[in-house]
Amino acid sequence: MEPSQTVEDKSQPSVATVTRRIQRLSLHLIPLPPLQCSPQLDMLTCAKANKQEVDVASLSSYMRGKHREIQEKIFYFFNSRPDLQTPTEISMKEHRELCLRQLLGLVREGKIKPFRYVVEDPAKYFAISEAVGSIDISLGIKFGVQYSLWGGSVLNLGTKKHRDKYFDGIDNLDYLGCFAMTELHHGSNVQGLQTVATFDPITDEFIIDTPNDGAIKWWIGNAAVHGKFSTVFARLVLPTHDSKGVSDMGVHAFIVPIRDLKTHQPLPGIEINDCGHKIGLNGVDNGALRFRSVRIPRDNLLNRFGDVTRDGKYTSSLPTINKRFAATLGELVGGRVGLAHSSVGILKIAVTIAVRYSLLRQQFGPPKQPEVSILDYQSQQHKLMPMLASTYAFHFATQYLVEKYSEMKKTHDEQLVGDVHALSAGLKSYVTSFTAKSLSTCREACGGHGYAAVNRFGTLRNDHDIFQTFEGDNTVLLQQVAADLLKQYKDKFQGGALSVTWNYLRESMNTYLSQPNPVTARWESEDHLRDPKFQLDAFRYRTSRLLQSVAARLQKHTKTLGSFGAWNRCLNHLLTLAESHIESVILAKFIEAVQNCPDASSQAALKLLCDLYALDRIWKDIGTYRNVDYVAPNKAKAINKLTQYLSFQVRNIAGEFIDAFDLPPYILRAPIAMQSEAYSQYTQLVGF
């Protein structure tokens, strides 16, 4: 404002407001002629679309990054060892023993030693984990239990004395271990765990007890057969000299030996039972643990955030139970990062099989002409092309998550810890849910052949299904994202700093929540719809409206229902908000990846996928945009037509896109996905 200017009287409308009203009125009287879409939008066959040139090698190099070599080493090892390859038909007992042999072979013969990377280079660790999981998802989970959960808890929750004592044994698999957090009655609510660790000052020991059946540790990976140690989460109880007699210091982690290192028999006071056959992941020996007055040395308390002195006094640098609990769980967030990353790897396999089959399979066609590829049908493109685009989107989003997690492990920045916690919760939930649905869609897209076990969809679907539950139930995790968004929303109005992932909220409350521009709401040109700014603005506009509206609803209902009741009343709204925010993050990272791609042909190909991802998501939620006039009717039609056209274009180079994943034949293993000899290999399997 110039010094000579004065603030306008609030009763007088501003020039901008008057201009806006005139624009709105003029549109009612003289509607703008619809802008013409590209004539290519009217092409209804992919044969008429212009095929882009893609340098598959450059695109693959950009996708796979600097850890490609160690993944190739893992693939080569298993490809050279038929005795370690998982057959289609295998019993639970055989699968468990094979999984152990696979893990031992990888580490002791293949010379892959991942444990040091858990802290030193998380990106390399997750690259190894993705490759291992693509061999057999059961192997990937067993690998993760050993190194990320059992090993990670020792590294992240313990101190130097624990690392010195256990590192080598965990690294070389002499100390196979478990991660005993979940109980029969408590999974997501970790603060409600009932297992007790009572300090005995006379013997300088903790006594681990399972007070009731509901406190039995349940679904513990590696426990049923192979585990020798376990990180056990229990309530730390100290004796006191007051009327209460004891003091509950909250949930802590303890190292508890569960089997004799020589005889492999359960140690005294430890009862181990087998959780039995599961829907999937039967190569992982999940078990149940009950503790009956099991004594462990005081040094077995993983004491990074809280310790007990010889005379029974509790010490901690963190002042409250809640802060210690948050710090403990914050150090375990790597499990969620790994699951999101691995889920994308599984999605790549499924999409590759389904797309390659759809390119090879021919059915029907014009009269008296050859049959056409089933991927030429719009319905098949509608199933698979947005899924392919999403796979690329998730790849770059989880890469970003791994980078932020690695930075967090190096800096321990408090704000970054909170950002990674919410981002990992959101991406783990969103990506694993999407992959679970996509696995069924891929199976259906391959017809009857997709139902054959040898073509992998059944195993992939069953093994992956639990990704939606462990390391945090997806619905619970989305609520954590929503809660963090609401906190950021509140902090914004109190002048606080916003964490990096949430930065767009600073301007969104002003820019995105203003009345939609009636002119831009009607723009239909292809250039406009493919503009990253339009796409990202649309995603963020939706998130901002959802955030503002749910905040108002919560405030209203809290007055009559209380905070818990209000949250439950608005729960579906909150889940939609969280998903919308995560989609905004995914798109932002995809756009960045396109812009940063150094190869021109790869950049153009990625831009095509990014546009398809963005416009497909906008179209699927077009009702939201229409309800607030963010998108006019003709613009909505243009979005739909352009989305179909982009699917046609992606179909033309779908083979190049899946080839860029660079998955070796042994990883795919599905006869219907083989480029050559597809049906001869397939028929041999059934005896012809």
TrEMBL record:
It is found in: Peroxisome. The active site is at E471 (proton acceptor). GO terms for cellular component: peroxisome. FAD binds at T182, G221. Residues 330-485 form the Acyl-CoA oxidase C-alpha1 domain. It holds the Pfam family ACOX. SUPFAM superfamilies: Acyl-CoA dehydrogenase C-terminal domain-like, Acyl-CoA dehydrogenase NM domain-like. GO terms for molecular function: acyl-CoA oxidase activity; FAD binding; fatty acid binding. Residues 178-294 form the Acyl-CoA oxidase/dehydrogenase middle domain. GO terms for biological process: fatty acid beta-oxidation using acyl-CoA oxidase; lipid homeostasis. Residues 531-675 form the Acyl-CoA oxidase C-terminal domain. Its cofactor is FAD. It comes from the Eukaryota. Keywords: FAD, Fatty acid metabolism, Flavoprotein, Lipid metabolism, Oxidoreductase, Peroxisome, Transit peptide. Belongs to the acyl-CoA oxidase family. PANTHER family: ACYL-COENZYME A OXIDASE (PTHR10909:SF378), ELECTRON TRANSPORT OXIDOREDUCTASE (PTHR10909). This is Acyl-coenzyme A oxidase.
